[in-house]
Specification:
Layout lengths: L1 H14 L3 H10 L4 H16 L10 H19 L5 H9 L9 H19 L3 H12 L4 H8 L3 H42 L1
Helix pairs in contact: 2-3, 2-6, 3-4, 7-9, 8-9
């Protein structure tokens, strides 16, 4: 159980900040929002099932590669392949040492987004989350430092991650809703 928590914490700290860049790439691939959500969710599920993260030197590249592999599987299973999706898939350069300017900007924005969400957590929850997930301190040490039980540290850490993920989902849903509303208005104007 503790091993699984470490993997989930690693994904939260090292992979989740890159979700915005992956979502932006998938949207440029002209996928519908449900497919984007499914691919992201499946990527998280596959990473959470890892036995170890020691082999992952670049979490952002690894995340892109997992999603790219999932998209490739989806395209192979599909009878109709959109040219745009296949072209975008080929143009995704994951193996370079330097991220593309788009990925770097997306990563900075996503990091700022996650930092803002962390700042919005309740005080004790935020402090525990920062000490545990960002600074990597053990639960026992955090409990001693803050004068709380290890159970409280564990519960507040999980609560913090849950609140951040929920807020991200809500923000993404709002963004998708705004995007759809904009697209609908644009289509309506074209009919006139």
């Amino acid at each position: 159980m503790e091993h699984r928590r470490r993997i989930v914490a690693w994904v939260a700290a090292h992979v989740m900040p890159h979700e915005g860049g992956v979502r932006a790439w998938l949207r440029r691939s002209l996928l519908n929002p449900e497919d984007v959500d499914d691919l992201i969710q499946e990527a998280y599920a596959r990473m959470a099932a890892l036995e170890s993260t020691e082999h992952i030197e670049k979490p952002d590249g690894y995340f892109f590669q997992v999603v790219r592999n999932l998209l490739t599987e989806q395209i192979r299973r599909s009878r109709i392949i959109r040219i745009e999706a296949a072209t975008e898939l080929e143009s995704l350069s994951i193996y370079t040492d330097e991220p593309s300017p788009e990925r770097a900007i997306a990563a900075r924005r996503e990091l700022a987004r996650v930092k803002e969400l962390i700042e919005g957590l309740p005080d004790r929850c935020r402090r525990i989350f920062e000490l545990r997930k960002i600074h990597g301190l053990p639960q026992r040490e955090i409990a001693r430092m803050l004068g709380v039980t290890e159970s409280t540290v564990e519960n507040d850490g999980v609560k913090g991650l849950r609140l951040i993920m929920q807020a991200m989902r809500e923000q993404d849903a709002q963004f998708e809703s705004n995007l759809k509303e904009h697209d609908d208005r644009t289509r309506y104007r074209r009919r006139d």
